[in-house]
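Morning F.,

Quick status update on the modeling queue. The single chain you submitted on Monday has been processed. Sequence for confirmation:
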Amino acid sequence: MQAPVVLLDACTLYPAALRDVLMRMALHGLILARWTDAIHDEWIEAVLRDRPDLSRAQLERTRQLMNLHAEDSLVTGHEKRIEKLDLPDSDDRHVLAAAIEAGADVLLTWNLRDFPQATLAAHGMTAETPDALLARLCEARRDQLLAVLREARSCLKNPPLTAAAYLETLRSQGLKRTCELLEAFLSEI
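Structure tokens below.
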């Protein structure tokens, strides 16, 4: 199975545990992750609004590391497409423009209603939630996904989490179906 090109909407990069899983999936070749500087700006601003204990410098370092480690992740040149696109929320046009420019198979978002399937199909892509994508990968490439999750959990030191607690964290970030599928594999996470 060839790794899909996945444009990550800002809402999928906001929660740290989910962002970590998506990045590790990219590093392990499960997905080819794509984003723009504007998408980075959106998730960083949202985190700063909700987490005054974090600094802009910390999040900018995260941005730099993401851009450095996910090969060809930063999409540019998409701006020329924005004005030609029609979406329910015009503020989301830059996301679709970037997905088109990147040749994305999947536009990953929690806001499916903002990206009508008919509009995306015209550009050869679909919109999926992170839960749907991970559940699909759990069924198609379970061993690789388990390795990603095991690695992510093993890096948690403050505090370390049991596999069950780690799945609960992911569940709280919207990965309900994925966590249901993974509960039978706790010993491998």
